[in-house]
Specification:
mainly alpha
Length: about 475
């Protein structure tokens, strides 16, 4: 792929419309108009993390993503913990999209049962992700145009007829409490930030497509920043417009589905159904793009020899025609189907706090990579080092603290992800290390050390 193809796939991983109408709606339910503050804070965190991802992606444009980066810079035990969190969160996040899709399709097809619909779309998108990567880039590009149109509709409906002052969002946020509006606690905004992290996340997905991208070391940073900028604007602007333009803010914030309630009040039932259909397309798009990443993460672990030998062969198997990791794709699709039996709100929290841990790990990886020289092969270097990795670590610590303070959803979600990391760390200590570890590999199955040496050799004449 060229840069544009990688950008289309990465934007589809962010999937602005699905992020707004599923994760964004959850954030609004938790923080009310404070959702704008939550998204703005996460946008700043995204900028810091964007610098971090751009540098480490340039050094390691590998299909293993964060797992490969963290293992190379911080050591194998840390890499295994990252793999555990990602493999735990991958089907959880996919299932959140699937259940959200069923909710919006229900407006177009009345009486549609949610869970069977989620399972059906999971099966369908899994089949699509078995196809060639370039064909998937074209498919996701078409769907992306549809979802941006849906976001444009909600932005126009809110911006053309404002009903709330800006101060209600930025200075005096309110939320629904017992059917009435009350000031939003700052703890609620902090807790909602986990959902906002999930919504904005995806720009780091550019590194997962690095092995299928021309000149990835020199181009991937551009994809990271371009997708981050488009994603943040495409999400923050519609949510802000919706909350400013809500004709009846109390009714919107107390509704079971605030965004659909807004579309019905501001645009009428026909507009609501049309936008819901567009959102359904965007969710399918997201599931295709995220499914590509999930399969490649498992494929990379098999290629590196993380598992017992039979599993390594299966997970690293590539389809002879489509050149896709077909067994890994089917395994992750089956795991997603199983997660469709978890409630949507918990799925969003579980995924959000998993991403918080991964962001922290990548921030530490950027610091360690500079200090121990493991990221020297990269073409891009972030400015003002080590400011951006430190901002990333401080921001993720703040979101984690909000999780600890919430015993209902936040703390269990964070502990579940920490449990996945601990389980894989134990797997490393009790099995992999005794077996002799594993070898991080890049394109064509070559050891990463050899690829880095070749890249440094190419850079030497230019220097």
């Amino acid at each position: 792929m060229r840069r544009l193809g990688a950008l289309m796939l990465t934007l589809s991983v962010i999937t602005p419309a699905a992020s707004v109408f599923i994760m964004g709606q959850t954030v609004v339910q938790q923080a009310g108009t404070g959702a704008v503050i939550a998204f703005a804070v996460v946008a700043v965190l995204g900028l810091a993390s964007g610098y971090v991802y751009a540098e480490v992606s340039s050094a390691f444009p590998l299909t293993g993503g964060e797992y490969s980066v963290i293992a190379r810079t911080l050591g194998p035990a840390w890499g295994m913990m990252a793999l555990g969190v990602n493999l735990f969160g991958a089907p959880v996040g996919q299932a959140a999209f699937a259940l959200g899709l069923a909710d919006y399709l229900g407006d177009v097809i009345p009486g549609l049962p949610a869970r069977p619909a989620a399972l059906a779309v999971t099966a369908g998108t899994t089949i699509v992700t078995l196809l060639n990567i370039r064909l998937n880039a074209i498919v996701t590009g078409v769907f992306l145009a549809v979802e941006l149109a849906a976001l444009g509709t909600i932005t126009l409906l809110g911006a053309l007829h404002p009903h709330q002052p800006w101060s209600l969002l930025a200075l005096h946020p309110v939320t629904a409490v017992g059917g009435a509006l009350a000031p939003t606690p700052w703890a609620a905004i902090g807790l909602a930030s986990a959902g906002a992290v999930f919504a904005v996340n995806g720009y780091g997905g550019a590194m997962f497509f690095g092995e299928e991208m021309y000149e990835a070391r020199t181009k991937v940073a551009w994809v990271v920043f371009a997708s981050l900028a488009i994603g943040v604007v495409a999400e923050l602007v519609p949510i802000t417009a919706l909350l400013i333009g809500a004709p009846d803010l109390r009714r919107i914030l107390t509704a079971d589905a605030p965004f659909k309630a807004f579309l019905t009040l501001a645009g009428g039932p026909t507009v609501e159904k049309a936008v819901s259909l567009g959102v359904a397309f965007s969710i399918v798009n997201a599931m295709i793009a995220v499914g590509l990443i999930n399969a490649r993460q498992l494929f990379c672990s098999g290629r590196d020899g993380v598992w017992p030998e039979p599993l390594n062969r299966w997970f690293a198997a590539v389809h002879p025609r489509f050149r896709s990791p077909w067994i890994s794709t089917l395994v992750m699709g089956a795991a997603t189907a199983a997660c469709c039996y978890i409630k949507l709100e918990l799925l969003v929290m579980l995924t959000g706090y998993g991403l918080v841990l991964i962001y922290a790990g990548v921030g530490l990886a950027a610091l360690a990579g500079r200090w121990n020289g493991t990221t020297a092969a990269g073409d891009y270097r972030m400015p003002h080092f080590p400011f951006w990795p430190i901002v990333t670590l401080v921001g993720t610590a703040g979101v984690a603290w909000a999780a600890i303070s919430d015993p209902v959803d936040g703390r269990p979600s964070l502990l579940a992800n920490l449990g996945a990391a601990a389980l894989f760390a134990a797997y490393w200590a009790l099995y992999l290390r005794r077996r002799g570890g594993w070898v991080l590999r890049g394109a064509d199955g070559l050891p990463l050390d050899a690829l880095e040496a070749a890249s440094l050799a190419e850079q030497a004449p230019r220097a």
